[in-house]
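User: Could you check the structure of this?
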Amino acid sequence: RFGVSRSRGGRVRLHLSWWNSLKCSDLTPAFALLARAGFFYWGKLKMSILNCTQHTATREQLAAGVVDLNGVDRELLLKLITFESLPNDAQLADRSADFADFVEARIFDFQCALIAPAPFWAFHVEAELRARNIPFVYAFSRRESVEEKQVDGSVVKRSVFKHAGFIGRVPKRSARESAVRAEVLKLMGGGQLVGDRWTPDPESGIIEPVPAEVWTAAEKAVDARRVSHSRAVELHGEWRGRHVPTWRG
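Assistant: Sure, the predicted structure tokens are below.
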């Protein structure tokens, strides 16, 4: 129902009886549903990829969800991926472990890392990241020819690289979420997670809710392994990633 009245100043007021009688408690379920839908929609559209390459992200990559490192982290990254002299196999392996330490300390809130190691180093880097279950992707660019007209009327052709996607699978969840789910399976003694529920075997037809205390224990275990940023970086001096504790399992 609604009614119309006119104030002293001549303004028309609309009265909605159902709105006036509506309580805040009545709106809570609706707001909760909208919030869930909003987060779901945003999560489907927005990726979050940590840039661990020597180049800053292009405009297209930023739009795709790539996030650049800044400040001290950027300096350490460039130091880790730059080789000033000819390395041997042992040095490549050690540098790969240092690089993985660096990525592992910062990948927590991201879905994966964008990498571009030197070809002679790529095998070691990929093996180290896979050993720690750190997801990574490569950027794929397409070469395009662009014509630029000069002041004198001449035309200069030059090649530019346009971001065309990623090589590798971008996980749906952040590294922390994936680690928590892996920890839950460890605490449950194996099996699989179907959404937020657990099953010993998908073919068994048994699907049970995961106890709240198991989720809590898994989150605490994963958070305890997370590297403290203040202890993981050092502005001056040599990189000491080999001596920095990590949150690997």
